[in-house]
Amino acid sequence: MSDCIFCKIAAGEVASSKVYEDDTKFAFMDIAPVRPGHVLLIPKKHYERLTDLQDEAAADLARVLPRLARATVAAARADGFNIFQTNGRCSGQSVAHVHFHIIPRHNDDGYSFHWRPGQYAADEMEAWRKKITGALHDKSTADGRR
Ligand code: 5GP
Ligand code: ZN
After folding, report:
1. From ligand 1's centre to the CA of 54, what distance in Å?
2. Taking CB atoms and a 6 Å cutoff, what residues make up the pocket around ligand 1?
3. How many CB atoms lie within 10 A of CB 24?
4. Which one of 15, 101, 144, 145 is separated from 88 by 20 to 30 angstroms, measured CA to CA?
5. Known catalytic residues?
6. CA 145 to centroid of chain Cα atoms
7. Could you give the count of Cα atoms lying within 13 Å of 66 in the half-sphere of its Cβ?
8. Cβ contacts of 25 within 8 Å, gap of 6 or more
9. What residue owns the CA closest to ligand 1's atom 21?
Protein backbone atom coordinates (compact mmCIF):
# COMPACT_ATOMS: atom_id res chain seq x y z
CA MET A 1 0.00 0.00 0.00
CA SER A 2 1.67 3.16 -1.22
CA ASP A 3 0.36 5.47 1.51
CA CYS A 4 0.83 3.11 4.46
CA ILE A 5 3.45 4.28 6.97
CA PHE A 6 4.19 0.75 8.19
CA CYS A 7 4.68 -0.54 4.61
CA LYS A 8 7.19 2.29 4.15
CA ILE A 9 8.94 1.42 7.41
CA ALA A 10 9.11 -2.27 6.47
CA ALA A 11 10.57 -1.33 3.06
CA GLY A 12 13.14 0.99 4.64
CA GLU A 13 11.63 4.01 2.87
CA VAL A 14 10.82 5.66 6.21
CA ALA A 15 13.36 5.54 9.02
CA SER A 16 12.65 3.48 12.11
CA SER A 17 14.60 2.01 15.00
CA LYS A 18 14.79 -1.59 13.81
CA VAL A 19 14.79 -4.37 16.37
CA TYR A 20 14.34 -7.44 14.14
CA GLU A 21 13.94 -8.26 10.45
CA ASP A 22 13.59 -11.35 8.32
CA ASP A 23 12.09 -12.05 4.89
CA THR A 24 8.48 -11.65 5.98
CA LYS A 25 8.42 -9.55 9.16
CA PHE A 26 9.87 -6.46 10.78
CA ALA A 27 9.98 -5.20 14.37
CA PHE A 28 10.83 -1.69 15.49
CA MET A 29 10.54 0.71 18.42
CA ASP A 30 7.15 2.41 18.81
CA ILE A 31 7.69 6.15 18.37
CA ALA A 32 5.24 7.01 21.18
CA PRO A 33 5.80 4.24 23.76
CA VAL A 34 3.14 3.30 26.26
CA ARG A 35 6.10 2.19 28.39
CA PRO A 36 9.82 2.51 27.55
CA GLY A 37 10.89 -0.44 25.41
CA HIS A 38 7.54 -0.69 23.57
CA VAL A 39 8.14 -2.66 20.35
CA LEU A 40 5.90 -3.16 17.29
CA LEU A 41 5.94 -6.33 15.16
CA ILE A 42 4.49 -6.20 11.64
CA PRO A 43 4.33 -8.43 8.57
CA LYS A 44 6.16 -6.87 5.62
CA LYS A 45 3.14 -7.55 3.43
CA HIS A 46 0.24 -5.16 3.91
CA TYR A 47 -2.76 -6.58 5.74
CA GLU A 48 -5.13 -4.30 7.59
CA ARG A 49 -6.38 -6.68 10.27
CA LEU A 50 -5.29 -9.90 11.92
CA THR A 51 -8.36 -11.53 10.38
CA ASP A 52 -6.99 -10.76 6.88
CA LEU A 53 -4.07 -13.13 7.41
CA GLN A 54 -4.32 -16.75 6.39
CA ASP A 55 -3.25 -19.29 8.99
CA GLU A 56 0.30 -19.67 7.64
CA ALA A 57 0.96 -15.90 7.55
CA ALA A 58 -0.44 -15.53 11.07
CA ALA A 59 1.66 -18.41 12.35
CA ASP A 60 4.77 -16.97 10.72
CA LEU A 61 4.19 -13.61 12.40
CA ALA A 62 3.44 -15.14 15.80
CA ARG A 63 6.49 -17.38 15.64
CA VAL A 64 8.81 -14.53 16.60
CA LEU A 65 6.57 -13.00 19.30
CA PRO A 66 7.89 -15.00 22.29
CA ARG A 67 11.49 -14.29 21.28
CA LEU A 68 10.83 -10.55 20.91
CA ALA A 69 8.97 -10.52 24.21
CA ARG A 70 11.85 -12.32 25.96
CA ALA A 71 14.32 -9.78 24.56
CA THR A 72 12.10 -6.82 25.51
CA VAL A 73 11.58 -8.15 29.04
CA ALA A 74 15.31 -8.81 29.46
CA ALA A 75 16.28 -5.36 28.18
CA ALA A 76 13.73 -3.58 30.37
CA ARG A 77 14.31 -5.89 33.35
CA ALA A 78 10.55 -6.10 33.28
CA ASP A 79 8.34 -8.11 35.62
CA GLY A 80 5.99 -8.99 32.76
CA PHE A 81 4.65 -7.73 29.45
CA ASN A 82 1.52 -7.11 27.43
CA ILE A 83 0.94 -8.25 23.86
CA PHE A 84 -1.69 -5.94 22.49
CA GLN A 85 -3.35 -5.85 19.11
CA THR A 86 -5.94 -3.49 17.59
CA ASN A 87 -8.28 -4.13 14.66
CA GLY A 88 -10.44 -1.31 13.36
CA ARG A 89 -10.90 2.24 14.55
CA CYS A 90 -13.40 1.14 17.22
CA SER A 91 -10.65 -0.93 18.86
CA GLY A 92 -8.14 1.92 18.85
CA GLN A 93 -6.31 0.98 15.63
CA SER A 94 -4.68 4.13 14.30
CA VAL A 95 -2.40 2.53 11.69
CA ALA A 96 -4.27 0.28 9.25
CA HIS A 97 -1.44 -2.25 8.87
CA VAL A 98 -1.68 -5.21 11.24
CA HIS A 99 0.72 -4.95 14.18
CA PHE A 100 1.43 -6.47 17.57
CA HIS A 101 2.41 -4.22 20.45
CA ILE A 102 4.98 -5.74 22.83
CA ILE A 103 4.96 -3.65 26.00
CA PRO A 104 7.26 -4.34 28.95
CA ARG A 105 5.58 -3.98 32.35
CA HIS A 106 6.85 -3.52 35.88
CA ASN A 107 5.10 -4.14 39.17
CA ASP A 108 3.39 -0.91 40.24
CA ASP A 109 4.29 0.90 36.98
CA GLY A 110 1.02 2.79 37.31
CA TYR A 111 -0.21 1.87 33.84
CA SER A 112 -3.66 0.38 33.39
CA PHE A 113 -5.63 -0.82 30.38
CA HIS A 114 -8.88 0.04 32.18
CA TRP A 115 -10.28 -3.44 31.63
CA ARG A 116 -13.84 -3.38 33.00
CA PRO A 117 -15.25 -6.91 33.41
CA GLY A 118 -18.95 -7.27 32.62
CA GLN A 119 -21.43 -10.07 33.22
CA TYR A 120 -23.94 -12.10 31.24
CA ALA A 121 -27.64 -12.44 31.94
CA ALA A 122 -28.92 -16.02 32.33
CA ASP A 123 -28.36 -18.10 29.14
CA GLU A 124 -26.68 -15.17 27.41
CA MET A 125 -23.21 -16.75 27.39
CA GLU A 126 -24.59 -19.96 25.89
CA ALA A 127 -26.35 -17.96 23.15
CA TRP A 128 -23.03 -16.26 22.35
CA ARG A 129 -21.19 -19.61 22.40
CA LYS A 130 -23.66 -20.98 19.85
CA LYS A 131 -23.33 -17.93 17.60
CA ILE A 132 -19.54 -18.10 17.67
CA THR A 133 -19.23 -21.85 17.18
CA GLY A 134 -21.73 -21.53 14.30
CA ALA A 135 -19.57 -18.83 12.73
CA LEU A 136 -16.46 -20.96 13.27
CA HIS A 137 -17.93 -23.62 11.01
CA ASP A 138 -18.96 -21.09 8.38
CA LYS A 139 -16.67 -21.29 5.34
CA SER A 140 -16.33 -17.49 5.19
CA THR A 141 -14.50 -17.41 8.54
CA ALA A 142 -12.36 -20.47 7.92
CA ASP A 143 -9.30 -18.60 6.70
CA GLY A 144 -8.14 -15.04 5.95
CA ARG A 145 -8.36 -13.19 2.68
CA ARG A 146 -5.62 -13.72 0.15
P1 5GP B 1 -2.46 1.37 17.08
O2 5GP B 1 -2.98 2.57 17.78
O3 5GP B 1 -2.85 1.36 15.61
O4 5GP B 1 -2.77 0.07 17.76
O5 5GP B 1 -0.88 1.48 17.15
C6 5GP B 1 -0.13 2.20 16.24
C7 5GP B 1 1.19 2.49 16.90
O8 5GP B 1 2.10 2.92 15.92
C9 5GP B 1 1.12 3.59 17.97
O10 5GP B 1 1.55 3.07 19.22
C11 5GP B 1 2.04 4.67 17.43
O12 5GP B 1 2.80 5.29 18.43
C13 5GP B 1 2.92 3.90 16.45
N14 5GP B 1 3.36 4.69 15.31
C15 5GP B 1 2.58 5.45 14.49
N16 5GP B 1 3.33 6.01 13.52
C17 5GP B 1 4.62 5.60 13.74
C18 5GP B 1 5.84 5.85 13.06
O19 5GP B 1 5.91 6.58 12.05
N20 5GP B 1 6.96 5.26 13.55
C21 5GP B 1 6.92 4.44 14.67
N22 5GP B 1 8.07 3.91 15.06
N23 5GP B 1 5.77 4.18 15.33
C24 5GP B 1 4.63 4.75 14.87
ZN1 ZN C 1 0.93 -1.34 5.08
Report:
1. 24
2. 5, 16, 28-32, 40, 86, 92-95
3. 14
4. 15
5. 99
6. 18
7. 3
8. 41, 42, 43, 44, 60, 61, 64
9. 31
